[in-house]
Prior knowledge:
- Helix content is 57%, strand content 15%.
- The protein is built from 6 helices and 6 strands.
- The protein has helices at 7-56, 61-76, 107-112, 123-128, 141-150, 191-236, and strands at 80-86, 92-100, 114-116, 132-134, 154-160, 169-175.
- The protein has a 6-stranded antiparallel beta sheet with strand order 3-2-1-6-5-4, sandwiched between helices.
- The chain starts with 6 loop residues before the first helix and ends with a helix.
Amino acid sequence: DHSSLSADDLRDENLRLADQVKRLVRLESQLHSAQEKSEAECLLYRKLYEAGQQLGSTLEEPRILGIAAHFAVYEVGVERCLVLMCEPGGTLFRTLDHEGYFEDEDASVATSAWLALEHPALAPLRDRAAPVVCAPGSADEGRDGIGRTCGMDEFVVLPLGEEGGVPLGLLVAGNRAERAEFHTRIHADSPELMALASFANQTGTALRNVRLYQELEREKRELEKLAKMQQAILDNA
């Protein structure tokens, strides 16, 4: 019976009810945020699956590199992406594809950036095929050097496949500091970077499949050539 409550009792009751309302509002907000995050991650991994289907539908290496660069920029959401491939028999990687926003003064970065596997900052990738991550605010001169070469202030370097202990290629994705707020930020444990790392693995598998297919085709042509030579010998015998 509220008529028997004192003014202090009513005030305490109102404060208790107000506190419950605040807790309910916070809980509702947390649930909404969790739902939005879950939906965003589901969408991202659906895009990952669809892009993987594209990789599986081609045996053309340039097409594979283009799919990888497109996924990084338009599905993961970074500003820029470079795809560098290893020169035959070496450990030097040169840009073969790029995607994203490059201004005129960055044209040379988009088309001619190169990295050497021996670069000190690439040690994690070289020693155990682990990604190299330069997150916002990182202070590492070696990684800063890679960033200057690739035109990015925050970035991740991911290996694409492997042959003889050397990656077939490297995917470098990230942002410039002045535009980073408009794009997906580079954090090692983010769902976006985990999805990109997974896609880099798929891309590496696709590249190995192309190399295997090309080798089988070469062997097939050699066998056909040998068979024709043997038939010609028999015909002239």
